[in-house]
Amino acid sequence: MEVLSGAERRRRWSAAEKASIVAESFAPGAIARQVALRHGLHPNQIYAWRCELATVRRHAAREALPGFVPVAVARSGSEMARLASGMVEIELCGAIVRIAPGVVPEFLRVVLSAVKAS
């Protein structure tokens, strides 16, 4: 029989340590139980951290969704011609992205993400 005294303290893990251990548990061929034992954890703790990570990612994804943005209506002749052709202009982070009709939405998302990241 093992008796634990009140003198033993619970281990506190930093967010970076948790992330590292969870990443290790997701590695190809990794077994969560073995990863847990290697770090002195119960396997349930790794599963709890995985859920915590998933929750953080869901919240981050929600916050990254675009909100309302101001829209300017074209006034000049050349701007009106572009509108008539179906072309759309997006000004983002000081850059102007012109979008022709039929652009693949996934491609547009990648382009806008790259502009926003620069």
Helical residue percent band: 40-55%
Distance between the termini: 60 Å
> Radius of gyration, rounded?
25 Å
User: In DSSP terms, counting alpha (H) and pi (I) runs of 4 or more, how many helices?
Assistant: 5
Mean pLDDT: 80
Strand order of the largest sheet: 1-2
Largest sheet: 2 strands, antiparallel
Number of domains: 2
The tally of beta strands, per DSSP, is: 2
Q: Could you give the order of the helices and strands?
A: HHHHEEH
Strand content: 5-15%
Shape: elongated
Structural class given helices, strands, pairing?
mainly alpha
Low-confidence stretches are none
Structure commentary:
With 118 residues, the protein is mainly α. Helix 2 packs across helix 3 (43-63). It has a two-stranded antiparallel ribbon with strand order 1-2. Strand 1 and strand 2 form a beta hairpin. The mean pLDDT is 80. It is elongated. It has helices at residues 15-26, 32-38, 43-63, 77-84, 105-117, and strands at residues 88-92, 95-99. It is built from 5 helices and 2 strands; from the N terminus they run ααααββα. The chain folds into 2 domains: 15-63; 77-117, no CATH class.
Properties at a glance:
118 residues; mainly alpha; 2 domains; two-stranded antiparallel sheet; 5 helices; elongated
List the helices and strands and how they pair.
Elements: H1 15-26, H2 32-38, H3 43-63, H4 77-84, E1 88-92, E2 95-99, H5 105-117
Antiparallel strand pairs: 1-2
Helix pairs in contact: 1-3, 2-3
